[in-house]
Amino acid sequence: MTVQKGSIDIKTENIFPIIKKFLYSDHEIFLRELVSNAVDATQKLKTLASAGKLKDELGDLTIHVEVDKKNNTLIVRDRGIGMTADEVDKYINQIAFSSAEEFVKKFKTKTEAEQNAIIGHFGLGFYSSFMVSEKVEIRTKTYKKGGKTKAVRWECDGSPEYVLEEIDDKTDRGTEVILHIDDENKDFLEDYRIKELLNKYCKFLPVPIQFGTEKVQEPVEGEKDKDGNQITREVEKPYIVNNTHPLWRKKPSEATDEDYKNFYRELYPYSMEEPLFHIHLNVDYPFNLTGILYFPKVKKDYELQRNKIQLYSNQVFVTDSVEGIVPDFLTLMHGVIDSPDIPLNVSRSYLQSDRSVKKISGYITRKVADKLAEIFKKERETFEKKWDDIKIFIEYGMISDEKFYEKAVKFALLKNTGGNYFTLDEYQKHVEKTQKDKENKLVYLYANNLDEQHAYIETAKERGYDVLLMDGVLDSHFINTLEQKLSDTSFARVDSNTIDKLINKEEEAPSKLDDKEKEKLKEAFERNIDKEKFNVLFENLSETDMPVVIMQNEFMRRMRDMEALGGGSGGMMGLGSLPETYEMVVNTNNPLLDKVLKEKSKKKQDQLIKQMYDLARLSKNLLKGKELTDFVKRSIDIIE
User: What residues does each domain of the chain span?
Assistant: First the structure.
């Protein structure tokens, strides 16, 4: 053929500035598109070969990516099916450009969200190369024999003008795309940058991809040192970027536990922790989906990292920003999801609006719940040992996802202060005979700090109550969810005033003090305490219970906690800043109270009351500064 020069018939203005600006949200994506095209061409050749339609041997199918700094070029070369001149004219000049023109027309009349969606409908992958190039060349030779099968060269400088000509200096089948990198994108001529992008986007593509070489140690056959150790030598070998057979492509029955651990290390080479569980996704109806999800071990300081799930489409990396694609609570997990039903498009808003993606999201939720239920049923002891690490995922899911809650309610656990685990049903049966209030409502007592609430926990146990340990970062929210879901059930912190309102305790002891003595005591207490903060109440507790106990109204405490977290609940409800108030429960049956009443010296009486008051505050971590210093001095005086 003669040299063909032409101009694509485009009725709109130049499409390339729009492609450069809007086609993809990140310019670096061009390398993924070009390598993916090379992989497609290679896979098509394999298909032809397996069908007996290829006359030549396949040979080495490795895709090569090369940087030529001297000529400011980046080259992607494959040995796939290649193209004839007619095919270049059809697929590059006509179909792709007409798609591009249609894209431009529709793009100009749409909102930003709609623009993102439009991008996914056009095969513009090759033209992403113009985002970083001042000129692009294609050199290609078809696998076909006979007729018009000479190699051809296509060139375009980012305008509608192009050149298409036959060439003699390419004799091997396949295609090479040569990008003449523009001045604004010289970083794509740096080896480290290209290696970084290949590792990010092409790490698991199904065809080997070579980028440069690497130095490795290999054993020298038959040579050992004086200690019998194998002698090695340094050799330079092609650096293959990708693992062409990633573990998620295997059937779960073909993989061992060690395989899953090794794959986790491959995904996260800098992670120091082993994953707790893995879930292998493998479904072919009503959509295709494979993948492996891991429950990572979460540190106590809540070092949760999102963007650890990698989304692929036929082993081509799409994104690691999976919020809205994967259920929100599962974005805390690590791993890989791969589905050809996910559009190969970097626009997250487009992905989130896609019907297939929404179905996939629902499936993943069910699969994770079913796997956890299976582990719980078959290996409950193992499940319990790992509960403290995985409960953040399960609680988050139950709080945020109704469908997950319905499944998780069967295996979600509650842990008491004795270290025993119960399902929600088991715990209800465990406490339903002993922990009800006057309205016959079940009350779950809990502690969120074993050390600070130790005295209250011990008192509750002495009365025959059970106390849950709810000290996780999401437990306060989880409590709210359970209160909404469980009928006739409430939660109360063990240091709240609720504990004395439970009716299923031993019959209350009669008070040793009459009303006159109580009034006298109240007067004495109120002259020694902060009356605005503490409200004095009398309870007929046992002689062995503390003389003074400080408790807090459960509702008011929760409101203050929400306010402290920045919720501003008090202000929102028209309450202003909520006051810090407590109930000071005086045990009328403790012998010390009788001693206070009989003490004739007002000074000594006040000293005893202040001591009991400060001891109670100390147990609640409310005694600080000068008041703490005064308490210590007073304690020494009493001892002396």
Answer: 4-210, 247-364, 412-501, 515-639
Predicted pLDDT at 575: 46
Q: What is the pLDDT of residue 119?
A: 38
Residue 500: predicted pLDDT = 66
Residue 23 has pLDDT above 70, yes or no: no
The whole-chain average pLDDT of the chain stands at 82
pTM of the predicted protein model: 0.73
If one looks up domain 412-501 in CATH, what number appears? 3.40.50.11260
Q: Which residues of 431-451 are buried (b: 16+ CB within 10 A; e: fewer)?
A: beebbbbeeeebbbbbbbeee
Q: Locate 117 and state its tokens.
A: 């969606």
Asked if pLDDT for residue 10 goes beyond 50, the answer is: no
Question: For every residue of 488-528, which 3-state class applies, written as one string?
Answer: CEEEEECCEHHHHHECCCCCCCCCCCCHHHHHHHHHHHHCC
Cβ atoms of residues 31 and 197 within 8 Å: yes
- State the pLDDT at residue 412: 96
Please state the φ and ψ torsions of residue 386, each to the nearest 5 degrees: -100, 0
Residue pair 613/525 in contact (Cβ under 8 Å)? The answer is yes
Residue 282 CB-half CA count within 13 A? 12
Q: Work out the average pLDDT over 327-354.
A: 72
Measured CA to CA, the distance from residue 578 to residue 305 in angstroms comes to: 34
User: Which CATH number describes the domain made up of 515-639?
Assistant: 1.20.120.790
State which fold the 4-210 domain adopts: Heat Shock Protein 90 (3.30.565)
